[in-house]
Amino acid sequence: MRSSQGMSAGELLKQANQLKRSGKFEEAIALYNKGIENRFNTVYNTMKKMYNFLVNLV
Fold first, then answer.
1. pLDDT of the chain along its 58 residues, tens only?
2. What is the domain partition of the chain in residue ranges?
3. Cut 0.70: pTM above it
4. Do residues 33 and 49 lie in contact, with contact meaning Cβ atoms separated by under 8 Å?
5. N-terminal to C-terminal alpha carbon distance within the chain
6. For residues 16 and 14, what is the distance between their CA atoms, to the nearest angstrom?
7. What are phi and psi of 3, to 5 degrees?
8. Which of 8, 19, 23, 35 is the most exposed place for a label (fewest CB within 10 A)?
9. Closest by CA position to 13, among listed 45, 3, 40, 33
10. Are 31 and 4 within 8 A, CB to CB?
11. What angle do CA 11, 36, 9 make, to 5 degrees?
């Protein structure tokens, strides 16, 4: 399997599910966590942009 660097949350989920089915539970958990981090970063960055937008309106 390819490296998890640069993968989207959806790709990480798919790969983690494959690892889970293969019985590689610890590796799957690591990728599930990476997917959560990726998704969190996306949401956080979007929220930050919105706050900056609101600050510039004032």
1. 445 667 887 888 899 999 999 999 999 999 999 988 888 888 888 889 999 999 888 7
2. 9-57
3. no
4. no
5. 49
6. 5
7. -65, 150
8. 23
9. 33
10. yes
11. 20
